[in-house]
């Protein structure tokens, strides 16, 4: 897009107004990506800040192509920044001991209660909250697979785990979300 190329050129010239315009235009969407990976606003804001610094420092490397947009380039930087943040946190159970989560997903809905009308029953904000409540390993794989459309092979390479672990994490994330959605829908029917 021409406007993005102009903003990029102005940022390279150290124009403060261009930096503000870039931030104002893209920060909400990029913060949303960070929230999906981090699960809380404080960490998401930290990742957004670090990601914008990387964007500004490397803006000279962006080359518009027919297959890649400026926004897509920035999203990729933000995703990588979020993934690096999660790795650097060095949580003991980053990819979760499956046994500890089993209690949370016990009693999942049976096949006779399909969740076909999820969009009508659960708001976008509620769905985002549910995704943020996923354990870190589940949330990371879920985001990469569902939102970024990575294959399990790509996820395995990115997160340094096996493809089967990626598949298992995704399956467990979906089960966890189905249970949460079912709970919300059950409460709405009761009211």
Features:
191 residues; mainly alpha; Rna Polymerase Sigma Factor, Chain: A; Arc Repressor Mutant, subunit A; 2 domains; 10 helices; 0% strand
Number of domains: 2
Distance between the termini: 48 Å
Structural class by SSE content: mainly alpha
Order of helices and strands: HHHHHHHHHH
Architecture overview:
Residues 90-117 have low confidence and may be disordered. The protein folds into 2 domains: 2-89, RNA polymerase sigma factor, region 2, helix turn helix motif (Rna Polymerase Sigma Factor, Chain: A, Orthogonal Bundle); 98-190, Arc Repressor Mutant, subunit A (Orthogonal Bundle). The protein is 74% helix and 0% strand. The chain has 191 residues and is mainly alpha-helical. It is globular, with a radius of gyration of 19 Å. The N and C termini lie far apart (48 Å).
């Amino acid at each position: 897009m021409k406007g993005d190329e102009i903003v990029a050129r102005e940022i390279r010239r150290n124009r403060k107004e261009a930096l503000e315009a870039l931030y104002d235009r893209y920060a909400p969407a990029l913060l949303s990506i960070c929230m999906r990976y981090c699960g809380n606003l404080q960490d998401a804001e930290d990742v957004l800040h670090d990601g914008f610094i990387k964007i500004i420092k490397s803006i000279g490397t962006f080359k518009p192509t027919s297959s890649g947009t400026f926004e897509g380039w920035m999203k990729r930087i933000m995703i990588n920044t979020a993934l690096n943040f999660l790795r650097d946190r060095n949580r003991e159970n980053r990819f979760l001991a499956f046994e500890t989560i089993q209690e949370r997903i016990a009693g999942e809905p049976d096949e006779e209660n399909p969740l076909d009308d999820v969009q009508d029953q659960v708001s976008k904000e509620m769905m985002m909250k549910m995704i943020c409540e996923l354990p870190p390993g589940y949330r990371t794989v879920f985001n990469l697979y569902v939102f970024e459309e990575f294959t399990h092979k790509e996820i395995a390479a990115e997160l340094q785990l096996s493809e089967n672990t990626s598949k298992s994490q995704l399956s467990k994330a979906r089960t966890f979300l189905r249970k949460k959605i079912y709970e919300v829908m059950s409460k709405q029917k009761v009211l």
